Each structure stands twice: as structure tokens, then as C-alpha cells.
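#structure-requests
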Amino acid sequence: MQEEIRKKCDEIRDLLIEKNKSYGNSVFDKGVLFKVDPMYAIQSRINDKLNRIKSKETYMSENDLMDLTGYLILLQVYMDEVDRRMSETIKSSEAYPEGETPFDYEISSNGKDEG
């Protein structure tokens, strides 16, 4: 059974990489027409795929399962990237003295920002 699991994982990996090449990394980029955050776009695709599986009156195809598995993997990859970027931001803000961050600013007495 372990070899079958390995083969299926390899098959899904190859499918994801091929689709990523074909679509030009579009799942991780905000849309051209609609500026949708990639996380929400992936979640929407997962939701659509689950609705499609749920509403099918016949059998669930292997393609449906592979697509759903692929979207779940893409969501994990994206969340890992978000976590990595957040960690880098936190580490870079630790270099600022006395709690200052690159995001600090003050409002002057005339009410204008003084970044």
C-alpha cells in the first residue's frame, strides 16, 4: 500500500507542476480582472470543487479528487509562504530599538502624517 500512496502523491505533484506551468502561476497571483487575494481564490476553488462533488448524481471521478487534493496542497503552500513572510517581517522589526518598527509614524501638531 505504501508504494501506491507514493505513486499517487507523485502523480498529484506532477499534475500540480504541469498546471502551474500551463497557467503561469496564476493561483498565487492576484487576478487580472478581479484583485482577489490568492488565499481566498484557492479557498473558492476548493469550495467549488466540493460543491461539484456533492452535487454529482453519479460517481465522483478521480479527476475531481485529484483537483481537490491539488487545491488543498496549493493552499498549504500559500499559507507556508505567508507564514515565512510574516516571520521575516517580525525578525526585521526586532532590529529596531525600543519597540519602533518600520510602520511607526507620528501625527504632528498640524494634523499631517510625519512618517
